Amino acid sequence: MATEVKVPTLGESITEATLGQWLKQPGDPVKADEPIASLETDKVAVEVNAPVAGVMGAQLVKEGDNVAVGAVIAQIDEGGAAAAAAPPAAAELPPSTPVNPAGAGENIEAKPAAEDEDEGTHLTLSPAVRRIVLEHHLDPSKIRGTGKDGRLTKDDVLTAAKAEKAAAPAPAPAASQAAAPSSAPAPAKVGERREERVRMTRLRQTVARRLKEAQNTAAILTTFNDVDMTAVMEARSKYKELFEKKHGIRLGFMAFFAKAAVLALRDIPAVNASIDGEEIVYHDFVDISIAVSAPQGLVVPVLRDVQDLGFADIEKAIADFGKRARDGALKIEEMQGGTFTITNGGVFGSLMSTPIINPPQSAVLGMHRIEERAVVRDGQIVARPMMYLALSYDHRLIDGREAVTFLVRMKEALEDPTRLLIDL
Fold first, then answer.
1. Model's pTM, two decimal places?
2. What parts of the chain have a pLDDT lower than 50?
3. For the domain 204-422, what is the CATH code?
4. Are 340 and 291 in contact (CB under 8 A)?
5. Active site residues
6. Residues 6+ apart with CB under 8 A from 418
7. 2-89+111-166 — its CATH code?
8. What is the distance between the alpha carbons of residues 259 and 388, in angstroms, rounded to a whole number?
């Protein structure tokens, strides 16, 4: 009996996806709820799980094809589990499989597919792990996974890549190269210029389209200010050990910025608003989109009701977002919504930038690297850890006075964190 595998519901307003990769091939044994394919949507990569246990049947679409929600993409044969475990006949073995002729010694027993492929770990790669495997040109079947059910993790692949690089033989001498088979690829000539064309992922296409739409639609302007991070850094240094001991998470900078943004957004509600047609929508809650760099591109999960969260809640949520973004495990609903965005280019060394707003939001805050600069305090030139802040905003909704005032409120709260406690 064959069971159809359909494209699951992918979230509000998402009607189709791209078949990124088949994680199971026809004839492979499949467990119930085991990932068999990876879909690329406008926001994240989503795994399609097997509805029943059995054997992978026909694949009805190819990798790279667009598929609609509810479309049938494969079949699973529920009655084929026993047949999959049986050794295949000699005539059915692929050419590369050695077959013992009769009387030529000990018989070779064919292993079930799951065993022959190192427990199938490479067939269920997460999008993040799959990308690293492709980048390093590794054979996942030769890497032993340490994750749940033997699945490969990023550390497994990176360790294997380092080991393979260390074990790589030195270039063969010219005489040996001359004796190489003619089928070997010719080495690149000195000074040769090469190009590689790679299809854009659906996520990258969507990012490109939305950013251009934002430029074409909104009247984007950016204003800047700088912040003396001395007080925040001293607070972190003083309380980081107690904080981690009590809450089980490190105290980072993002919690300070998120709470300071809440204060500033309450004072300047237009920055937390959006335009819908000819109406302005004001929000009495703060849902902050946190830009996170992931292997498949920039993703922006939403931290909801930040006005009600404590420092520990914020740090735990952001750490969880970062981990699941790297593993490609963020859910589509976690990427939707948001009333304001914070992006931190400082982790990559950026000194200053002009971030682009994330429609329908009307503003985005850019954080940058902290560096010591000479500033004047009480008539004296002193060195202080300074950070530039950038607020890009939609001038159709937010006036320059409001944008500047917003950054001033942020600056005041960060340079005197006590304001975060007494709501000033």
1. 0.62
2. 81-123, 172-183
3. 3.30.559.10
4. no
5. 395, 399
6. 424
7. 2.40.50.100
8. 18
